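step: validate -> pass
step: tokenize input -> pass
step: predict -> running
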Amino acid sequence: MEYKYSDITQDIIAAALEVHKTLGNGFQELINQRALDIELVNYKLLVAREIEMAVLYKGKAIGSRRVDFLINDIICVEIKALIKLEDVHLAQGLNYLEAFNLEVGLLINFGAKSLEVKRLYNKKYKASNQQIRTTDSIG
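step: predict -> pass
step: emit ->
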């Protein structure tokens, strides 16, 4: 099955698999995040890590949230280091997509014995020419 941005998400997933294969499942989120950053750059992806993004409510900035990764300015990647992903983590990832008006995201869990990856789709996505708003635009 072909997914939107599947070429990019396949590279992200391959990079995450390499990190999990190399480090295993015992490290904190920050360690996995740093290793994933290295792997994503190796795949020649445009990587923004730990950037503050505005949370929008009806078009108005009401706060901010730090995104683990924004890849190629179009895909949000949230990482976890938990024994098991739960519904609350999926809901959180979907909320970020909606708040940031991004169409596609990945939720990646390095804490399980096997790498867990969930593709997230924003059903409320509205296409626009507007670029991602960082906290610089809050005010």
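step: describe -> Residues 6-23 form the longest helix (18 residues).
step: cleanup -> pass
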